[in-house]
Design brief:
The protein has 472 residues and is mainly α. Helix content is 68%, strand content 3%.
Length: 472
Amino acid sequence: MQKPAKTKEYGSPYEFEGRLPLHQAIPLGLQHVFAMFVGNLTPILIITAACNSSELMSLQVSLLQNAMLIAGVVTLIQLFAIGPIGGKVPIIMGTSSGFIGVFSGVAKTMGGGMIAYGAIMGASILGGLFETVLGIFLKPLRKFFPAIVTGTVVLSIGLSLIGVGVASFGGGNTAPDYGSVENLLIALSVMAVILILKHTTKGITSSSCILFGIIFGYIVCSILPLFLPTTGVTAEGVEYTKAWVLNWDKVLEAKWFAVPEFMPVKPVFELQAILPIMIMFIVTAVETVGDISGCMEGGMGREATDKELSGGIMCDGIGSSLAAVFGVLPNTSFSQNVGLVTMTKIVNRSALACGAVFLVLCGLLPKLAALVSIMPQSVLGGAAVIMFSSIVISGIQLITKEPLTGRNMTIVSVALGLGYGLGANTAVLAQLPQAVSLIFGGSGIVPAAFVAIVLNLLLPKEKEKAKEGESC
């Protein structure tokens, strides 16, 4: 008698473990790539320009290629782990924008050029190893990160990203037609498609609503040139191409295959670069704790474990050192994708791994990378506003895990008011030493985290409990 053929058993998209069929896993993974692709490349464009070197600019395409490859490889390490390195958490890794302020300062201090970029790479190698050590000793440091602190950090991450999402919503704040009716309508249509698919359909169309919304945006931007002019004229009389126009020439000109270059920039070890960058690696470790906490709370409904946080931070560190060897800026957890996880609840490892493999392919197949890179900012913005707002909700969920006592309310309100306020208004720090503005300026995440940690240590818990007992 012939034995019945074994049927493949698949897991759920809403569970971390278990395989998914490829027709389901691929679109779920691709929407993660679309969510982070531009953010993964932008820091390299900014810092190579800040170094102002023709030799470095000639390497820019190679560096962008390496950035995609490294993001995919480090994401796979984060998802599956190599020994203690990797948290086995649903996190997508990518080039960090948190270092832009410090790197720009280093480039300016060292006079730019290949030497300055080499110094950034050298400091990133050492800083990544330093963060790895922090990850090893995270367990005794965990007491500094209760839910009230990590929740405040996650909340500040979401708040800082909403502005980025709204800027993309209008077409990108550097675009000549920023805020134009076309850009706003494209973003609104993408947002509408996402919301309709998310809440009125089931299965793959609901779980992959972000991807389908972005594809719809591509289609709209392909059709619009049939009805609207693709160029405009500034007040100074300069002609420009509108931000929503798809640059298909970039796809046609890209190569089909290219081998990533190992160590395209020679590392230089300079103390004036190492010290400020080392401090930023402490800061990014705190941000990673917030990202992983927000992801686990928003996507899986529980707090992150010590092992997950430790492995995640170690992956941050090793990934950043590996990235520097390939001439790429530090690789850390991507808050944009935390928002996507908290919104869709899709945490399946095989789905995210498909996104990571796609990033690796983008690093090997420039034409594929070019197709993603031409995405108009307004298309991305229609999805980003929803995703980033979801991070705010995850932060609130973490904060409210504990009773909102007077002590906890003080920590959150002062951290967001003073900490986030200082980061969002960097002019306040202009008269302080440059090191202070490099660390606390440019983002509200760092000062908010710092204030939350300090207040959590200083404000007495026993006194709060005594007051609660008297009021009963």
